[in-house]
Each structure stands twice: as structure tokens, then as C-alpha cells.
Stage III sporulation protein AG (Carboxydothermus islandicus), 193 residues
Amino acid sequence: MKFWEFFKEIERDKLIFFVSLAIIGLVFLAWGESPKSKTATPELPRSSAQIESEINRQEKELAERLEGILGKIAGVGEVAVEVKLLRSSAKEYALNRNAGQKITNETEKSGISRSINENTDQKEVVLIKDREGQESPVLLTEETPVVGGVVVVAEGAGNPALKEKIIQAVASALAVPLHKIEVLEGESKIVRN
């Protein structure tokens, strides 16, 4: 009975304070234990500045890769490449879509009637768990960037046979039609004594 005697000795205000403190502590404990799953976030709609930045990054990356490839062709020499993209790469993820419509017709005593139409459309990305339990979105399609044109400046492009090899290499590497590729002869940077 010592337990109950302890509560009888404590003033009512202090008892309320301690009970409130205990309840708040339990709420924080319950809140802190919510499961937090690691999920890969799919691409969300981006602003035009973000899209432009992504296009610039992809253009630069493609140009650098092409410079590396073309620079290995015998006789090409120094190479500079500029790639212009019309659209960057895009990914489409599977979505669970829940759409609904609720129509409510009301008639007042005065004879006035009104109709309330509520439409709901909820979309949620479909996630799958891998063996480690990590969730990732289900990818439906992934579109490659659309190339608008390519300009190549190469030291050896004055040779018609070499120029044709450069054009074919660019067309093959980027799946670009030949009419969107321009190859120009560049100046030699070799200094002769």
C-alpha cells in the first residue's frame, strides 16, 4: 500500500504535471518508432530551369564521349564536338491511380436544388522491394535523349575519306540521321620551328 500512499501525499497540481509529462513522453516514443523505409524517389515534374540544366549536362556528357571516340580514329587529330539536344532523357514510372466521382443532389424546402460534383484523382508510384528490403519504383519506360544536331571540328576533316568516317561514327554512336551532322576541318595546333 505504500504505492497509493505516495500519491496521496503529492499535491494535485504536481500529480497532473507528472501525468501530463508521462503522456507527452509516450507520444514522442510512439512517434519516434514509426518505420522509415528507404525508397528511391522517382523523378518529379521539374521546372524549366532544371530541365535546361539537365539538357546542358547531357549535351556536355555526350560531346565528351564523342570526342573520346573520334580522337581514337587514325588521322583525326584534335577534335571538338558540340551536341544539341531537343529533349533530355525521360523515365516513366508505374502508377496506381485511384479516381472517383461523387455527385450529391440537394433540394431545400424552398424548392431550390443544387448538385455538388466532387472528383478525386490520386496517383501513387508503384514500389517493389528487393532482397534487402529496400523499395524502388517500377520503371515502365526510359526514353533516350533526342539529338537535334552535332557539329564536329577535327584537324583531319580536310580528308574526304576521313570526314566520311567521322560522320558515320557520329551517326552510329548517337543514332542521328546524316543530315544532322556537320563535320568541319579545324586548324592544326602543332607549332613548327
About this structure: The beta strands are 79-87, 90-93, 95-107, 113-125, 127-129, 135-137, 139-143, 146-154, 181-185. Helices lie at 2-9, 12-32, 48-70, 160-174.
